[in-house]
């Protein structure tokens, strides 16, 4: 499986295109600049199968409807944030932008940690709340990558001062759901460059000294 990171919008939120050997693809967090993202997907000549949302903050959903409508794609989102796509107060756009960003409701609501298969893509979904109540991470074991959204960054963690955020909950999620993955696992975050589990265990200043 190949992956491509595309920073989009004023906050440079990372969208990802995941491609398998057959030319199928998954799209993760289409946050902004829909035309740019759609053009890139078409240039790659892949067939998107679904959109995976790590959570429903405005900077991760700004291009959602245009991208989903281009290929009539199902959208996956945790049930804790099922109302956020249509509510600017919940998704943060009212507070942080002063204007409302909305999208249509998700098609598939994630209710629990589970294994999922879409086409040839097989992955685990882990509930990793703290940055937001419905944050999830997508773990592709065979490829050794995890898409952590805004839970875990290179040398950082997600902010917890937005609706439903909790610092203690976020640290618990990271330690129980992410740092338990194999140390070479590559972490693809919602902002910034990739890292790996071992590096963050050893060097992330927010994680050192935390105990459950």
From TrEMBL:
Residues 12-191 form the Metallo-beta-lactamase domain. Keywords: Hydrolase, Metal-binding, Zinc. This is Metallo-beta-lactamase domain-containing protein. Pfam families: Lactamase_B. GO terms for molecular function: hydrolase activity; metal ion binding. Transmembrane segments: none annotated. Its cofactor is Zn(2+).
